[in-house]
Amino acid sequence: MTIATALATPPPGTELSGQIDQSVSTKTAVVGQAVTLSNVTSAGANIHDAKLYGTVTHVVRAGQGRPAQLRISVTRLTLPSGATYSVRGVVTGIQKVTKSNALKEVGGALAGMIVGNIIGKTVFHTSVGGLAGAAGGYLLAKNSRENMTVPAGSTVTVKLVQARRQASRPY
């Protein structure tokens, strides 16, 4: 590799991938939280063992009928040589973990069946309250969403939109 190649600015569209250094969860993340990626590589731009820096720019905690959302913006790329680039990158892939909602759905159906059965027998003097309650409880639990977590060490893929070399500062 020549010196000119090592110092060339990565072109727009360059795909980079690396491992996130810290766990990020929609349950606890805040806008402005720092995020770093290590072991960043790109076959097309000959980037290896670099580091990406960014921040959490958007978080939505999961709730009733509301899925979790997480957006991370990447703003700086540092190569092992010390060369630093101001970048604008879009996360195009992320390994996330979301808990299964199945247990909550079963619990909701069971709780709904019990409550529906009690109401059906005491208020309406019928035995179909349990079935109606089970259906309602299941649907309520089915609409409940879970937060997501990006565990430390997960692979994150970033596509560069823009990059420009930063001047080195004398110390």
Largest sheet: 6 strands, antiparallel, barrel
Class by SSE composition: alpha+beta
Secondary-structure element series: HEEEEEEEHHEE
Question: What value does the average pLDDT take?
Answer: 74
Indicate the low-confidence ranges by residue numbers: 1-6, 108-112, 128-144
Number of DSSP-assigned strands: 9
Number of helices: 3
Question: How far is it from the N-terminal to the C-terminal residue, by CA?
Answer: 28 Å
| Range of strand content | 35-45%
C-alpha Rg, in Å? 24 Å
Shape: elongated
Bin the helical content.
10-25%
| Spatial sequence of strands, sheet with the most strands | 1-3-4-5-6-9
Task: List the SSEs and their pairings.
Blueprint: H1 3-7, E1 15-20, E2 24-25, E3 34-42, E4 47-60, E5 69-78, E6 84-94, E7 97-98, H2 102-122, H3 129-142, E8 148-150, E9 155-165
Antiparallel strand pairs: 1-3, 1-9, 2-8, 3-4, 4-5, 5-6, 6-9, 7-8
Helix pairs in contact: 2-3
Describe what this molecule looks like in 3D.
By secondary structure, this protein is of the alpha+beta class. The protein contains three helices and nine strands. A six-stranded antiparallel β-barrel has the order 1-3-4-5-6-9. A three-stranded antiparallel sheet has the order 2-8-7, with no helix packed on it. A hairpin with a 4-residue loop joins β3 (34-42) and β4 (47-60). α2 (102-122) runs antiparallel to α3 (129-142). The longest helix has 21 residues, at 102-122. Residues 1-6, 108-112 and 128-144 have low confidence and may be disordered.
